[in-house]
Structure formats: structure tokens, C-alpha cells
Amino acid sequence: MPSTAQISAPPAPAEAAPRNVKSLSGLLPFLRPYRGRIGMAIVFLVLAAVSTLVFPVALKSLIDQGLIASDPGARVMALREHFFALFGVGAALGLFSALRFYMVTWLGERVTADLRNAVYAHVVTQSPEFFETTQTGEVLSRLTTDTTLVQTVVGSSLSMGLRNAVLGIGAMTMLIVTNPYVMTQVLGILVLVVLPSLYFGRRVRKLSRASQDRVADSSAIAAEVLNAIPVVQSYTQEAREAKRFDVSTENAFVTAVKRTRMRAALVGFIITATFGALLWGLYQGTQAVVRGDISAGHLGQTVVYVIILVSSVAVLSEVYGDLLRAAGATERLMELLSLRSPIASPAKPTALAATSGGSSLALRDVTFRYPSRPQHATLSHFSLNVLPGETVALVGPSGAGKSTVFQLLLRFYDVAAGQVLVDGVPVKEVALDALRERIGIVPQDSVIFSADAMENIRYGKPTASDAEVIAAAQAAFAHDFISALPEGYKTFLGERGVRLSGGQRQRISIARAMLKNPPLLLLDEATSALDAESERMVQAALESAMKDRTTLVIAHRLSTVQRADRIVVLEAGEIVETGTHAQLVNSGGLYSRLAALQFDR
Q1: Fewer CB near the terminus (10 Å): N or C of the chain?
Q2: CB neighbours of 570 closer than 8 A, spacing ≥ 6?
Q3: Cα angle vertex 131, ends 128, 137, to 5°?
Q4: Are 441 and 503 in contact (CB under 8 A)?
Q5: In this structure, which CATH number among 3.40.50.300, 1.10.10.10, 3.30.2290.10, 3.30.470.20 belongs to the domain 361-599?
């Protein structure tokens, strides 16, 4: 099973990435539900190929019986009949080809959609550990570029390959039946064509994977920069970032050119060698006509079968290159699908008891290290108990471990030692959905989705009515500014809420948490982006929201935690002080010094 490090690490050199067409077997679970349609597509494909193979037989009859007949009247009638027969073959070919095209195109679109949905649904269930080490652009590249390559194969190339394989085998069989001696020689020559093709194919396969990795690098850079465009522009780094992206795309171009050059050599070699071998067979056929061994119609039939065989081999060489590229894309997608998050619901979860006055929390002798920083203990022998309905503030310098406590309560990570309990049950024994349904969070960086204000607040409770959403907005003092928007609650807020101020985004986030109405509320710097007037309004709303529920508050602005039932002061992952605001100010410890810095100005 690949690790997240394997996913996010810089791609290995092309020579270190052995890949083959067998990787496409990863698509079988996505094809299996559509066995009926696949069967129909194969039937239409075979019928279209048979129609094509029947054409030379009809042509032979036209030449031998229609053109060479001695009686003019009989010749005209024979020509008419044979042309009608040829038209019938063409009509059958058109019908079966159209049905085949529809079936395989439908399959390509359906399988690609299923694959894209499966990968996305799997990625969003990964723990934060995965996103610590994997660039968003890399994931997006796999969801878009790689799935498009798969679509090309399933919806087009694979069908073309099968069709031309049937045509090639059929044409070869007919040629062997009609000219066994000559075609045995030709087959011997074709075997010599295959051996060099294997070498070229191996090189194309490696370069295809490398090319896709270079494209993913460009996507990762673009996603990172576009998500931070205000910072890029404020530091006037547009030219530098454009140059960095240009270097990345140039690397992708160079790798793609190498792949294309090798693939062109492969196609050129296969077509030239195959054409030469079959010309030898055609030459022998013309000699047979001269000697009187076969008829002119027989030679015409042979010529058409030669053309079918040559064109089939040419198409198969093209399809082989597409299959190699899709094999690399499939492997990259299967790598994502094979990942298993270290955070998962237990097989037999313990149910949490119903609560009406808030949840109890406990962290018992917890030691925790982030996976990306295993040498540094963020929390060390940390213990904390919070009673139902209690409001506890976590205070301390940056990096003290305050946000980590929230992460552990939500079970984004598992502790290295100790226990985390909610309502007396270890979080490892609770289903993730049940645990997180019990918790509402207002993060420091408010997340606003590309939707209207109504849907952004309703995200906290998708089944909520419009009246409930409006009531939550009023409680969070967001109703007035939302009503003043051009379309009120139906106003589109822009990507990441760019049409709102920082304080407005925060109040939307607070309204979302209040709508959820959980027994446990986590406030991570919930008022950090508000001005003094907005802070007073939201503080009043939060105090109302804190009633009958347990609340943990993280705040650097100590004015927001003064009325907490208890203040816990953290430093370097350990609790150094506990008490009320008045007690801690008079203690002369870390909290007292922090308070002096903020209030004695």
C-alpha cells in the first residue's frame, strides 16, 4: 500500500518507474457493473469488423462474376446485384459502427465519472495527515488530467484497439487461407517486428508516467499560487511566480517531447516494417496471377485484406501508445484509492449517551506528535477535564498546543499515548460521524464556500429550514449585513467569501455552528477578525450560544476569555496554570505577563 509520502514526494526519474498495460486492470471494478453494455459493445464491434471483412469477398465476386462475364446483359445484371450487395455490406458497417460508437462512448463517460467520484469521495475521507504531505494541485491533476486519459482509453482507444485487432486477425486469417505459403513467410517477418517494438514500448511507458508527473507539478504550483493571490500581489511576486510556473510547464513540455519522439519512432517502425512485410506478400500474389494460379478477383480480395491488415497494425500501434499513457494514469489513480486513512471508525462503535446540558471532556496523560514532526512532542503528558456545561478557555503563546487539543477532540489525529474521552467514551471507540456530529467548531480562518449566504449557514445543518437559518444568523448578529446584500440570503458570496469582510465571514461561520446546535462548541479565535463593535455583538451572541453546552475557547485576545469558568494556560505542550481571570492575574505567572502586555498599554 503506498504511503502519503509516496504520493507527495517529487516524482522519480523516468527510468525508475516501470509501468505496463497490466495497470489498466485497476479499472475492472469500475467496468464490472456495466457488463451488459460491454457485451453489447463487443457484439456491435465484432459485427462491424465482420462487415468490413465481408467487403473483400463481395469485391472478389464483383470482379470475377460481374466484370469478366462474357454476355453484356448478364454482366449488367451481375454488376447491379453485386453493387447492391456491396451497399448492403456498407449499410451494415455503418449501422454497427454507429451502435458501437454510442456504446463505448457511453461507457467511457460513465466509467470516468464513477472513477472521478470514487477518487474524490476517498480523498475527502483522508485524515489531515494526508493533506500535510500532499499538494492540492497533485490531487486535482489526478482528478482531471489522469481521468481524462482513462476516458480516452475506455471511450475510444480500447474500442478502436479491439476492433482493429479483430480486423487484423480476420484479415490475416483470410490471407493465410487464400495464400498459406506466402503468408507464412510474412508472419515470420512480422515476428521480427515485435521484438524491437517491445523495447520502444517500454521507453514510451516510462516517459508517459514521467510526463504526467510533470503536468501534476504545474497543477500543484498553480493551485498554490491562485489560492494565495493577494499575498503574491502584495509582495509583487507575480513575475517570479509566472517564471516558476513557466519552468514547470517547460519541464513538462520537454518530457512530453521525449515521449512523443519515442512514440513516433515506435509508430514509424511498426508501420514501415509491417508494410514492407505485407508488400512482399502482395508481390507474391501478383506473381500468382501472372502464373494463372489465382484469379484477378482473388488478387483484388488479397489487396483489400492487405490494406485492412496494414491499417489495423497502424491503428494498433497508436492505440498501444494511448494504453501506455492510460496505464500510468490508472496507476496514479489507484495509488490514491489504495490509501487507507489511519483515522477510521471502529468496526463495532460505542454509542454516545444522549445529553442535554453539554458534553464532558477528558484528556488523560496525552502525549502527541504530528506525523510531519515526529521528533517534537506538541503535547506531553497533558491532562484536562471539562465538566458538562463548563466554559474553559485555552490560553498560551503560539505553538503551545491549544489548537492541537481541538484536533484530538475531533479525532483528526490519534494520540501516541494516553486517552481522549467525550462523555466518558474514548474517541477511538466512537464512530467518526457520531463524534463529530456532537461537536461544533468556529475556526480561526472562516471557511466560506462558493454558494449563497443561506447555503453557507445551512452547511451546519443541511436539513434546516430557511427560518432556522435566519434565526441562527440573527443570533450571530449576521442578519443585518446579509439582508443588506444585493439579493439578501440568496446573494452569492464568491469563492472563499471574497465579497465579505473578515468580520462578516466570521459571523457566517458562527451562525453555521449555532445552527448545528451541538452539545460541545469549539471556538478557535472566533472573534479575532472582528472590530471592537462587532466583537461586542458576537460576544453577546456567543454567550447565549454557550448556555446549556460545553465550550472550549482558544483566544490570544484575553478580553474574550475573561468570563470563562476556568482558564487553562499552556506552554510548550503542558499546562502551567489554571484558574479564573482574577486568580491568574494575581498569580504573577505566564497569564499575568500576557495580560499585562495586552491591558497595560
Answers
A1: C
A2: 394, 395, 396, 400, 401, 402, 576
A3: 155
A4: no
A5: 3.40.50.300
Cell of 265: 519512432
Contacts of 263 (CB under 8 A, 6+ apart): 204, 321
In whole angstroms, give the CA distance from residue 535 to residue 446.
Answer: 15
Cα separation, 521 vs 548, whole angstroms: 11
> Which residue bears the cell 436539513?
463
What's the CA gap between 527 and 537, in Å, rounded? 10
CA distance 290 to 287: 5
DSSP 359: -
Q: Domain limits of the chain?
A: 20-338, 361-599
Output 365 or 160, whichever has higher pLDDT: 365
At residue 280, what is the residue type? W
Return the half-sphere exposure (C-beta side, CA atoms, 13 A cut-off) of residue 249.
Answer: 9
User: Is residue 478 within 8 Å of residue 469, measured between CB atoms?
Assistant: no
- The mean per-residue pLDDT over the stretch 96-121 comes to 85
Mean pLDDT of 340-348: 85
Rounded to an integer, the average pLDDT of 432-440 is: 89
Q: Longest C-alpha distance within the chain, in Å?
A: 125
Q: Are 266 and 317 in contact (CB under 8 A)?
A: yes
Residue-wise pLDDT tens digits, 301-320 = 777 777 777 777 767 766 77
Residue-wise pLDDT for 56-91, tens only, equals 776 666 666 655 555 555 555 556 666 777 777 778
pLDDT tens by residue, 384-433? 999 988 889 898 888 888 889 998 999 988 988 999 999 989 999 999 88
CATH of domain 20-338: 1.20.1560.10
CA distance 548 to 513: 15
The pLDDT tens digits for 484-516 are 888 888 888 877 777 787 778 888 888 888 888
Other C-beta atoms closer than 10 Å to the C-beta of 424 total: 12
Distance in angstroms (rounded) separating the CA atoms of residues 113 and 216: 20
Separation between Cα atoms, residue 467 and residue 486, nearest integer Å: 20
SS3 assignment, position 295: coil
CA distance readout (Å), 449 to 57, 456, 499: 64, 6, 12
- How many alpha carbons lie under 13 Å from residue 203 in its C-beta half-sphere? 16
> Which of the two residues, 397 and 195, has the higher pLDDT score?
397
Q: Backbone phi, then psi, for 490, in 5-degree steps? A: -95, 10
Q: Which residues contact 465 (CB under 8 A, 6 or more apart)?
A: none
pTM, two decimals, is 0.69
The mean per-residue pLDDT over the stretch 467-476 comes to 88
